Amino acid sequence: MKFNTSLLHGAFRGEPQTGATLTPIYQSSAFEQESAERLEKIFHNQAPGFSYTRINNPTVEAFEKRMTVLEGGKSSVACASGMAAMFNAFANILQAGDEIVSSASLYGGSIDLFRDLEAFGIKTHYVENNDLDAFCKATNAHTRLYFAETLGNPRLDVTDIKALAKLAHENGVPLIIDNTAATAYLVKPLSLGADIVVNSSSKYINGNSNSISGVITDGGTFKWDTEKYPGMRDFVKFGPFAYTAKLRNGLFRNTGACLSPQNAFLNSIGLETLGLRMERICDNAMQLAAYIEENYKDITVNYAGLKSSSWHEIAASQFDGHYGGIFTLRLGSKERAFAFINALKYPLKVSNIGDTKSLVIHPESTISVHSTEEEKRAGGVFDDLVRISVGIEDIDDLIWDFKQAIESLS
Fold this sequence. Notes:
5-stranded mixed β-sheet, alpha/beta, 37% helix
């Protein structure tokens, strides 16, 4: 089954009870069972069923199953936001005294989260992405996971997932990959050796900027050492579902980071057109970035699809013929960056990515505002940098708009 077909038919056939082609929105806080005995069995994980939407919900479960198929994993847990998914993915296996080794090229919000984890005694070491020697040197007896983004946001460096996964496993730790900016349309990290994938499904998966949500997908292949990960001791009996079993029976349930049924429904609708949207978005991004690079030599264009990109070769070998929907421009000064943004007619000035509409932002003054100067530089954030998330508009209109905005600067 190929990509677009799997989005429509993979592990999904509507709702058999009614024939509805989409699982309806079960807007209910709780679910009645026919007897006290049945409810007891559900709470003891001895019978399938729904009890309380904070724990599980039919609409949310339908979306989770589709995400599992999309990423090629064993199980998925949908959360209230991408940041909630990140926190749950990490905290499910970490405790005070544990350490993370992470690529330094991260979304500013992720850096903020790692800073918050310090209050719980969890330390993060940042290293240059794809510098395997640096990852090794930062690894010690307290290291419990490696982390990277498939496409750094906004640096747009491309992680060599296979190489980093191999190194993580040699050191006995799982690799968690944030696949938000790439999506499974470009690459499925689990197929390259990653152990857990996190997606902020508010972006490309939803596609219309109408729902905040995040998803954790476990590949089910990592062998949990219960000496290193004592919290997994009671769950290794679940085999490839151990990680998700622990998450659902503890942290996820107890912190209340559940996705609403309404947002799960909207995500399921968006998911069905992910392939079609990404094909158009990637084509538009490639043409627009190439046009600007060719015609405006005083502007630095960063896009993995361009041969000038430092990460073009790894992107070409790892991605499936496309390079994503985001590129950045360096315009020489913050003033020129702001003037350029304000001169654009079509892109919306918002902090999201992955919409059907093109979006534009100045990262240094917005999504990376809480990062230190060192963190900004490591993440490719400069005061003259503009990030563009390309949409599905007609390419001729986008080229016209970017042309007039650039030429208004002179």
